[in-house]
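the two lines:
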Amino acid sequence: MGLWIMAGVTFHEAARKKILWMALLAGVAFLTLFGTGMHFQVKDFNARTIPPFIRYQAISGMLQVGFYAVDLLAVVITVLTSVDTISGEINSGTIQAIATKPIPRWQVLIGKWTGFIGMAAAYVTVMFGGVVAVGYWIGGVVPQNPVRGALLIFLECILVLTVTFMSGTWFSTLTNGVIVLGLHGLAFIGGWIEQIGGFTHSPRLVTIGIISSLIMPSESVWRRAVFEMQSPVTRSLPFGPFSNASAPSLAMIGYAGVYLLVALALAVYHFHRRDL
Amino acid sequence: METPSRPWPWRTHSTNTRRRFLDQADSLAIQTQNLRKVYGSKVAVRNLSLAVRRGEIFGFLGPNGAGKSTSVKMLLGLVKPSGGRADVLGAPSSAVAVRRRIGFLPEDFRFYDWLTATELLELHGRLCGMERARVRDRVPVLLEMVGLGPHRGKRLREFSKGMLQRIGLAQALIHEPELIFLDEPTSGLDPMGRRLVRDVIRAQRERGATVFLNSHQLGEVEITCDQVAFIKNGEVVAGRDLRAQPDGEVRVLVRARKLSAEVIAGLATWSTSTHLDGERMSIAPRSTSDFPDILRHLIASGVDVYEFTPERLSLEDLFMKIMGEDRGL
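prediction for all of em together
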């Protein structure tokens, strides 16, 4: 079936172009750095007398930094690797030799999309698993609900991937990259505004944050992942880089899922209709 | 001189494929009616009505920007027509299933440059729905056919433009399609490559396939095509059967001695113009059926005839005549 051939080609391309290996190499470098950092943090704590409770919270905080880095890397790598796949092939004319084969266009698009999802899944699994392993073996801490956290980060990757695909059926590679990273940046800032609004009890700021999350829910999904993985104590902290002064509701996660499906449907619809 | 009543060369062959084609021989490979494509305010294809018979090598000619590529893309379902109708092999051009029987070499063929020549053909074979075993059998044959056998393991990024055209031609033929669209297949090719394309096209005709050749290499078209259509400003302005020699497009070159002014004046009965240059005379006969009368007139007048050669107007002359001074640049 054409869908699986295209998914395979996408994987093959990433492997052949060394993108996959470079991403994994960068990931291993990150995990090494992270492990070293946590190792010295634990060592410093051992040298001093710190109450175990505070110590556990501090190392858990470090773990959250690790997850944050994984999330950021996963989102950026997803966008960078997929930004050229539709628009670039339309622009170069490569798509013409594929779209004239006896395969419906939706299968070409969904096939490529599936290939990227597979790569994102592999990347999130390795990196997230690596951070959890470092936390467990070196720091002696375990996050709450790690599976939910990983799945939410994966959902965020699929979300930005789908928006990249959708935008790529309309715009050139560069414009597409600007749009997707711009939207993610908007969501990022909106998330902070919402948190500050929650902390300072400013409903208008919270509203601005929610509106930005409705425009692009990627950051909300990450903040929900943080919320799921935090210990109840950290959750109760009013404000901080990983606090949840205004944690996104499950409705927002549902919205992100619907957003993703609508973006995918639009991508298929427009790719099917457009001239190549 | 006359168009054969059933111009399908595969009639003499007897394999299954050819028999299958024979069954459909009376139908058309391509038929369009008032096909139209408008981009904003620009009309790319105005009113294209074409009929290409199965088994024909059809040349689609026109200056740059005349709408040739857009027309081909509409026939392949790459571009949605703004109006009109296009059928290929009896199915609407938007149908997906019919593409199993269609091959396409895009203009300036480009593909994933990280693939090797073999991998590219295998991928295209699979995309065409071929069985793995058949793909494995076909790939080496095609690589040899386009002269890329020694480069089978080389990646496309190391290929020259000519080599890319050759591998592009191979991918268009991997599934032995009944209808093949070639968009400027000889661009970027050296004389050997051009000859190869010509031979490949002929082999496809032998096999019974229809070839739709989009080109402005008039010399190539003249040698390979059976039929041509001229497109200008998005419209077919003329069509020609290149196997026929229609009246008005044939001149006769005569080399003779003892040509007197009376003899030449007497030719006016059959010709529209006569031009004499020493022993050489060029006659523009009204009809090709007048040739015997002209010859009889010359001999009866005591002229010594050494040569009597009908010459068809070259495709280039025809092209210029049809396109006029405005060449659509």
